From TrEMBL, chains A, B:
This is D-lactate dehydrogenase (cytochrome). The keyword Transit peptide applies. The keyword Acetylation does not apply. It comes from Meiothermus hypogaeus NBRC 106114. SUPFAM superfamilies: FAD-binding/transporter-associated domain-like, FAD-linked oxidases, C-terminal domain. Residues 33-210 form the FAD-binding PCMH-type domain.
Length: 449, 449
């Protein structure tokens, strides 16, 4: 294509139209539709991004920022002719300032690579969405994970951003400080904007001290309802739990099968406490255990070594792939509802009943300490029931005061729920999009139609 | 004025042009300029606010939201002909949901009244800017306070907002959940927008368990530099301190004089630890004390009872008024700089030296655990040096990567710093203002000219 030649001339060695690149940039980890971009730009600098955007403006071709491709809502999939702007080569740690609990990084760096680079500093970056996502992508979807109940998600852990707008302008949003009241908070507007307002080119991240003392355990229950109630009891006590994850019986079975574990095949809470003192840790975890025993815990396994802890959280993070592995050749839809914590047991119950009533296979797992969990529905490709299930669950979630997505973002799949969730505020979101990107060049068709 | 008669007819018993009302709504707690509004509307409902806005649109008259009038940067002072929209009658607690750690309140409710209403629930709302500010006003300026180092400021503790736009439209921003990734974060855009984007009419607040165990102490040092270094040492250790406030020698002297205390007249840290267990509390506070002793602590006073604790924090909260009382008839300017925590001792030192070099009287106090502190400069009315001091301090702050305002907001006084702090992002803030309020009716002249 002649037009692409001009892009290749502008960015030699950085533009690919190789079929494998187009294929890997036309899909994500779960969304059932695929659509390759016209080309992939492997940007290596801010200037490369500005060059790509200038070219895109001239040719009226949309640009889709791409990090690690680990999203699951279709965020990186073109909706028509588009260029994929891959930032994975922009993966440097630019600065670590342990004395300020801060790191400055490029958007293509992954969370695991950052934590690797932090070794020896006594600090870590806590947000762990499971996949080894890029930090730019995690900011773009306001990602969170198992430790969010204690450390917060991306909005809490990104102090400032550098972004490039559709018009090529570079903005610095926020400052590397713990608090500021200096004007409108554009930083948090761009976090969660899914690449539709600008391209993230630099992140100022908040780091946390690695806890001196950690207590990690798996607590098993006879039924799912008790499990959810126990999680709520822990949260209602105000205990400073660091991780509080629910995995249902199907999930445990899948983990055992996929990873060769021999966990009791019962619904479980995977729990962790972090503390700066041994005494605090023991006091807090024994109080929480007491609460879980009162709400029906039948057995407790403690992870006593670092290896056992790593193994437990690996199992939790692999739970999605474990289930996928259990049902080869199927399609998967993961819901991502979040509700006020007291409503969580109700929603877990509702979700479980709805799976049964609709005769669907699936499992329930997630960040119940935040009121957020995922129901992974397994269907034959093209079976419309997964979508019907999702619609009913979201409807019940919104009625309980919840949100259609706690952490995965809107992408393509949840656009239809936003009008009900936000009412007239949605139209103002559209107007902000129009303000920052009047040509609709940045990731069009995501969040809004 | 005939025009105002039509407003009075629309809102009988709710519109005042009484000189005392105009006077109290034409000033704040510190800004030296006063300018009465044309009238004060005492809104009692969302409808009253919409009625006022419709009238204001028709008459092209600006509207300034007014809560408790406790801001200090000129936020509520008209810049010309304007109506003051007082929401202090909208002060109901609409709902308390202890099981979700949430309360729903009207904007005129003050933080102390909320905590009074929460008695018996075991929960509290932590943000304490000193003054008994309205919660709507606190959200409008993204206020914080002594406990922010542990519990966060308003952005962290407001889950969702209801607002009315200049055009009268009612928006619900955010949901009462712990996390959401559903589209653009308008909630945090409105928090800190200082009444320039919309009128806050309802707040969904996050509550916290009252800590079971509290340890409160005052630690004294020989000089200011040691005090700042000790505060940084505590923060750098990653200790979960709940309050970490610096009060300099002048501040202590003023407190002793104003409140009849007999604290040692030395620079001090006022410190507090919160914990769910006694063991944790003791372990953490003794580690922190060790650090402070290593960095030069010369004496430590412990507040052993609830009364002693209350007295200590009353002293801290009254420190501003204590200094004002020490120098009657003067003018006061309070800076509000915040820097990355490792830069805080440098900035404290700089501020202290600059006061001396300029021959100014003043004191230094504040939330050093957040890298945020205030220098209160005392001058003869009209002395331009206070402003010169502020400019130099902000310039040094920005060079250290900091912000011109950690918690007081921009108002009138800090508009001139925003261009340097935000660069081209400031123009995008202006465009967002233009989008939401094209007639420039809502608190014009604040944040931007």
């Amino acid at each position: 294509m002649v037009m692409l030649d001009s892009l290749k001339n502008l960015l030699p060695q950085k533009v690919s139209t190789a079929p494998t690149d187009l294929e890997t940039h036309g899909k994500d980890e779960s969304y059932p539709v695929r659509h390759p971009p016209l080309a992939v730009v492997f940007a290596e600098s801010l200037t490369d991004i500005q060059t790509t955007l200038a070219w895109a403006r001239e040719h009226h071709l949309p640009v889709i920022p791409f990090g690690a491709g680990t999203s699951i809502e279709g965020h990186v999939i073109p909706q028509g002719r588009a260029i994929s702007l891959d930032v994975s080569r922009m993966n440097r740690v630019l600065e670590v300032r342990p004395q300020d609990f801060m790191a400055v990084v490029e958007p293509g760096l992954t969370r695991k690579a950052l934590n690797e680079a932090l070794k020896g500093t006594g600090l870590f970056f806590p947000v762990d969405p499971g996949a080894d996502a890029s930090l730019g992508g995690m900011a773009a979807t306001n990602a969170s994970g198992t430790t969010t109940v204690r450390y917060g998600g991306m909005r809490h852990n990104v102090l400032a951003l550098q972004v490039v707008l559709a018009n090529g302008q570079v903005l610095e949003l926020g400052r590397g400080v713990r608090k500021t009241s200096a004007g409108y908070n554009l930083k948090d507007l761009f976090i969660g904007s899914e690449g539709t307002l600008g391209i993230i080119t630099r992140l100022f991240l908040k780091l946390h001290p690695i806890p001196e003392h950690i207590h990690t355990l798996r607590v098993f229950f006879d039924d799912l309802s008790d499990t959810a109630q126990a999680a709520y009891a822990v949260m209602a006590s105000g205990m400073p739990v660091a991780r509080l994850e629910l995995v249902d019986e199907v999930g445990i079975r899948a983990i055992n099968h996929y990873l060769g574990r021999s966990y009791p095949e019962k619904p479980a809470l995977f729990v962790e406490f972090h503390s700066s003192t041994k005494e605090a840790l023991e006091a807090e975890s024994s109080m929480a255990l007491g609460l879980m025993q009162e709400t029906g815990a039948i057995s407790i396994d403690t992870a006593r070594t670092q290896e056992e802890r790593t193994a437990q959280w690996e199992a939790r993070h692999q739970a999605y792939w474990a289930l996928v592995n259990l049902f080869p050749g199927k399609e998967y839809l993961s819901t991502d509802t979040a509700v006020p914590i007291s409503r969580m047991p109700d929603l877990v119950e509702y979700s479980s009943r709805l799976l049964r009533e609709m005769g669907l296979t699936g499992n329930i797992l997630g960040h119940v300490g935040d009121g957020n969990f995922h129901t992974l529905v397994v269907c034959e490709p093209g079976d419309p029931r997964a979508e019907v299930f999702s619609e009913r669950l979201v409807e019940h979630t919104l009625a309980l005061g919840g949100t259609c997505t706690g952490e995965h973002g809107v992408g393509l799949r949840k656009k239809k729920y936003l009008s009900k969730e936000h009412g007239p505020a949605l139209d103002w979101m559209r107007q902000i999009k129009q303000l920052f990107d009047p040509q609709n060049l940045l990731n069009p068709g995501k969040i809004f139609d």
